[in-house]
Amino acid sequence: MRIRDNNKVELVKKTAIELIVKEGLEGFSMNKLARACNISVATLYIYYKDRDDLIVNIAKEEGRGMSDTITKDFDASMSFEEGLRVQWRNRYQYVRDNPMMNGFFEQLRSSSYQQEFLESFLADFKLAMGSFMNNAVARGELQEMPFETYWSIAYGPLYSLIRFDQEGKSMGGRPFKMTDEILWTTFDLVIKAFKK
C-alpha cells in the first residue's frame, strides 16, 4: 500500500477547488482532476473514496477555516454595531484573502453538498450568531425579526459589494473596485437601517 503524500493531497485539493470554480460541479470529474494534477486516477482513490468524499472533505476542512476567520475577535456579547463591524471586517478579509474559496463555497451553496458543507461548522457558528442577535434584541439595539430578514439586511449589501468587486463591474457593466470608503459607508447605511 502506498503512503499518503501530503504535497499531493494539497495539490489535489487546490486543483479540485480551481476546477470546480472554473467549470462548476457538473463539469468536475476525478478523471479531469487527475489529468490536471498530472497523476493517475488510482492515486486519487488513495486519498478519497470517490468524488463526493473529495468534495465533502474539502468543504468541511475549508468551512472550519472560514468559520475561524469570521469569528476572530468576535464575541456575541459585543454591542450590535461593534459586533457587526467585526463581522463585516472578517468576512470581507476572508473573501479578499481567499477569492477561490469564495467561488468554491458559492458552487456548494446551490448544490446537493450544501447541507454537508454547512453542518461542518454551522452548529457553533449559528449559536454565536444567534446569541449575538438575541443579545442585541434584549438590549434594545435591534428589533425582533426573522433571521432571514436580519441576514439580508446585515450581510446582503456586503456580499453584493464583494460580488461587484470580484467581477470588476457593477450593474450595467460599469467598472467597480471596492474601497474602504465604499465598504464602511455602506456599513453605516446598514446600521442606520437597523436603528429604531
Characterise this structure.
Pfam families: TetR_C_10, TetR_N. Residues 29-48 bind DNA. This is TetR/AcrR family transcriptional regulator. It is a single chain. The chain is mainly α and 196 residues long. It folds into two domains: 1-48, Orthogonal Bundle (Arc Repressor Mutant, subunit A); 64-194. It has helices at residues 6-23, 30-37, 41-47, 51-70, 80-97, 99-109, 114-119, 122-138, 147-167, 180-194. Helix 1 (6-23) packs across helix 6 (99-109). The model has no long low-confidence stretch (mean pLDDT 91).
Sequence-ordered SSE layout with sheet pairings:
Blueprint: H1 6-23, H2 30-37, H3 41-47, H4 51-70, H5 80-97, H6 99-109, H7 114-119, H8 122-138, H9 147-167, H10 180-194
What is the count of helical runs? 10
- Give the CA-based shape: globular
Helix content: over 70%
| Rounded average pLDDT | 91
- Beta-strand content bin: under 5%
Structural class: mainly alpha
> What is the alpha-carbon Rg in Å?
19 Å
Low-confidence segments, given as residue ranges, are none
- How many discrete domains? 2
Largest sheet geometry: none
Q: State the separation between the terminal residues, measured CA to CA.
A: 65 Å
Number of strands: 0
The H-and-E topology, N to C, reads as HHHHHHHHHH
